Amino acid sequence: MSSPSPPTVDQSAQQTMDLERDYVLQNYARYPLVLARGKGCHVYDLEGHRYLDFIAGIGVNALGHAHPRIVAVIREQAGLLIHTSNLYYNQYQGPLAKRLAEISGLQRTFFANSGTEAMEGALKMVHAHGRAIHPEKYEIISLENAFHGRTLGALSITGQAKYREDFEPLIPGVKFIPVNDMAALEAAFNERTAGIVLEMIQGEGGINPLTHEFVAKARELADRYNALLVADEIQCGVGRPGTYFAYQRSHPVILPDVMAAAKPLACGIPLGVIVANEKAAAAIKPGMHGSTFGGGALACRVALEFLDILDELLPSIQRVGGYFHVVLNELARKHGFVNEVRGFGLMLGMELAIPGKQIVLDAMAEGLLINCTHETVLRFLPPYIATEKEVDQAVKVLAKLFAKVK
Ligand SMILES: *Cc1c(COP(=O)(O)O)cnc(C)c1O
């Protein structure tokens, strides 16, 4: 009998993957990489290999990994109070809601725990708003290729059939129109329209920015038909576009009635919010909505700390994002298979004429984490602390891989 080979670290990565295969619901197609820790813009696997993290937990790890100020407040608050439910007040919901009102231009926050859950709250607001006017006023306009989450409600307004089909029938009265199509927008509205939901820069849909013209028209029509304009800022908001929210990029700013945010908001601690103006907020009366976990002391305190840091980071997001856009464009010009570079701030996408999956895998082998959305769009969501140096490192890897594409 041969003696068993000594355990290697590699084997423990294999064990981790085996356990997940046997016991975890098989709904994800994961990359074969087990991450153990992170610091700044980098993460490390079990064997200590270092990766430049330009996907940042799909835009969640806004301050990278193990940011000293975030670690410090988590440590301190964990020792004081993590959760109390919403039966009582904690010291951090009020100040965070005030801060969100200041930076968003809206008024009232509801605290949830994820993006989908925030969207679900926004949808309930839209339905309640419509129903208070007329029982038949429940139609919602959404965009083709939109992504709003995985619960049945959020899924109903997600404009990609592949996510919806297996779960139909979903909520009725949803109309999908093409991005930036003014005529379709006009045609979609009527007296039964209760709301329209927009990602100012579509994320999962392939980094597709909406035009100012289109959003302005949506605002005008929403007002004309007394419908709520909902901005899904879960991926494109909270600093990533170089402004607090993507709807603030246009001049003059076009305010939504309701805004949903989540991903970067508490730097990896689950937290989602909807922030509404008084008109939209009035649709929800006591007892109509709630959450056990939402707005816990720990999550809210971390978000407050993050927003404090974000104030100082916005200029750097604009500068580094602008630089990244320029160097990606330079790279694009050298390769016929790159169609376009799109996005703002540190939310950028590179649309290829070929599938992006293999490039993502090859980049991982070269120590760069990115992903591909909508089959052909390489997506970059680096931490807000990324500098030109990290951008250069990422683009160097891409240049090397692009040179090998046949
Ligand atoms: C990620 C995302 C969601 C869903 O958020 P979860 O936290 O995954 O539930 C909704 N809308 C947009 C635009 C997103 O990018």
Summarize the structure.
With 406 residues, the chain is of the alpha/beta class. The protein has helices at residues 9-23, 56-59, 68-78, 93-104, 115-133, 152-156, 161-164, 182-188, 212-224, 278-281, 297-333, 357-365, 388-404, and strands spanning 35-39, 42-45, 50-53, 108-112, 139-143, 174-177, 193-198, 201-202, 208-209, 228-232, 258-261, 272-276, 338-344, 347-352, 368-369, 371-373, 377-380. The chain has 2 domains: 13-67 and 313-402, Aspartate Aminotransferase, domain 1; 71-309, 3-Layer(aba) Sandwich (Aspartate Aminotransferase, domain 2).
User: How much of the sequence is in beta strands?
Assistant: 15-25%
Global shape: globular
Amino- and carboxy-terminal Cα gap? 48 Å
Give me the Rg, rounded: 22 Å
What's the overall average pLDDT, rounded?
A: 96
H/E element order: HEEEHHHEHEHHEHEEEHEEEHHEEHEEEH
Find the CATH superfamily of the largest domain: Type I PLP-dependent aspartate aminotransferase-like (Major domain)
The unreliable regions are none
Describe this structure in words.
- This protein has 406 residues and is α/β, with parallel strands linked by helices.
- The protein folds into 2 domains: 13-67 and 313-402, Aspartate Aminotransferase, domain 1; 71-309, 3-Layer(aba) Sandwich (Aspartate Aminotransferase, domain 2), CATH 3.40.640.
- 39% of the residues lie in helices and 18% in strands.
- The chain contains 13 helices and 17 strands.
- It has helices at residues 9-23, 56-59, 68-78, 93-104, 115-133, 152-156, 161-164, 182-188, 212-224, 278-281, 297-333, 357-365, 388-404; strands at 35-39, 42-45, 50-53, 108-112, 139-143, 174-177, 193-198, 201-202, 208-209, 228-232, 258-261, 272-276, 338-344, 347-352, 368-369, 371-373, 377-380.
- Strands 4-12-11-10-7-5-6 form a 7-stranded mixed sheet, sandwiched between helices. A 4-stranded mixed sheet has the order 1-2-3-15. It has a 4-stranded antiparallel sheet with strand order 13-14-17-16, with helices on one face.
- A hairpin with a 4-residue loop joins strand 2 and strand 3 (50-53).
- Helix 4 (93-104) runs parallel beside helix 11 (297-333).
- The model has no long low-confidence stretch (mean pLDDT 96).
- The structure holds pyridoxal-5'-phosphate.
- Pyridoxal-5'-phosphate is lined by residues 114-116, 119, 147-149, 199, 203-204, 232, 234-235, 262-263.
